[in-house]
């Protein structure tokens, strides 16, 4: 199915359809933060929650690359109509691309450090509570986006953020707290020599030449008052942000603003909305973070959104509102 066909199908499908009885694969990444110290019996506990709700469940308890392979195989397997994955933002991003490409339902158990897309969907952060909510959840359609053919659910960033991730990868950490501390140290190192991104942003009705240390394109505008994720996963627009200062003190303040959800009316941040943006640069390659994974992309970066193109299992009724403040 082409992107246009998927857009049309998404627009015609109503939100809030009951999940009914599902034939689901439950793929748990045992290397993810929450499960790292757990035995496989923890996976059976989660599977039993879905079975008790009347669903047919096959559990796949896998680590690392085996978990990624299991996710891909589950989405390709005609035996399943729904795939629930437990992992961090990287696993979720890959699973979302597979769900989109195979036309299946994606459910998320947030087992990583940030769990940004799960938060956007209103999924509880406790593993068992999340399973209970999804077992009684509704099938919904939410936005998904792509950059140069690569799908993403949260962000594409250039400049400071991918540099910070690369520096963090060089540090040792073995826990969620350790990762947060490593992130803080990596940010401090990155700010010693902030990167410079010179680019032209081509939107539907505007072209902007920027010289910035930080450029962010999010799948939906980021909300205020919480970690950087979209308040509305069906916003049907990208959020495009770039820093207007390259002073390290301003960039440190901006990093804190993103972490704490203080983007609105920020004097050192410019923001636009559009369903598509092309980022042109005078360079052969650009290092970017796509949903937290640092990759090399070839400019121009062509980013577009598929409104309501991804089918997900989400909390039913008002449950999403109750947990969205987590």
From TrEMBL:
Signal peptide: none
GO molecular function: kinase activity
Record-linked Pfam families: DAGK_cat
Alphabetized UniProt keyword annotations: Kinase, Transferase
InterPro entries the record matches: ATP-NAD_kinase_N, Diacylglycerol_kinase_cat_dom, NAD/diacylglycerol_kinase_sf
All copies of domain DAGKc, residue ranges: 19-151
SMART domains in alphabetical order: DAGKc (SM00046)
Keyword flag Cell membrane: no
Protein name (record): Diacylglycerol kinase family enzyme
Lineage: Bacteria, Pseudomonadati, Pseudomonadota, Alphaproteobacteria, Hyphomicrobiales
């Amino acid at each position: 199915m082409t992107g246009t066909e998927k857009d049309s199908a998404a627009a015609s499908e109503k939100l809030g359809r009951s999940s009914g009885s599902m034939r689901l694969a439950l793929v748990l990444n045992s290397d993810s933060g929450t499960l790292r110290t757990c035995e496989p019996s923890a996976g059976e506990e989660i599977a039993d929650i879905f079975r008790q709700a009347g669903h047919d469940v096959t559990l796949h308890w896998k680590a690392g690359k085996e978990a990624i392979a299991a996710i891909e195989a589950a989405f390709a397997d005609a035996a399943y109509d729904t795939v629930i994955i437990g992992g961090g933002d990287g696993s979720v991003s890959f699973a979302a691309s597979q769900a989109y490409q195979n036309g299946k339902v994606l459910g998320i158990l947030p087992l990583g450090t940030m769990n940004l897309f799960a938060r956007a969907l209103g999924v509880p952060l406790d593993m068992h509570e999340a399973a209970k909510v999804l077992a009684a959840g509704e099938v919904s359609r939410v936005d998904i986006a792509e950059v140069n053919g690569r799908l993403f659910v949260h962000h594409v960033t250039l400049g400071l953020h991918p540099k910070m991730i690369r520096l963090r990868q060089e540090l040792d950490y073995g826990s969620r707290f350790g990762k947060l501390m490593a992130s803080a140290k990596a940010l401090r190192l990155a700010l010693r020599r902030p990167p410079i991104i010179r680019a032209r942003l081509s939107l539907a009705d505007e072209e902007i030449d920027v010289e910035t240390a930080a450029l962010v394109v999010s799948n939906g505008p980021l909300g205020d008052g919480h970690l950087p994720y979209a308040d509305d996963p069906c916003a049907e627009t990208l959020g495009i942000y770039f820093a207007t200062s390259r002073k390290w003190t301003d960039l440190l303040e901006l990093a804190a603003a993103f972490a704490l959800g203080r983007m609105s009316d920020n004097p050192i941040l410019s923001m636009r909305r559009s369903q598509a943006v092309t980022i042109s640069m005078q360079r052969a390659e650009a290092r970017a973070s796509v949903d937290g994974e640092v990759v090399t992309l070839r400019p121009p970066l062509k980013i577009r959104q598929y409104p309501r193109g991804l089918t997900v299992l989400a909390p039913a009724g008002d449950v999403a509102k109750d947990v969205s403040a987590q």
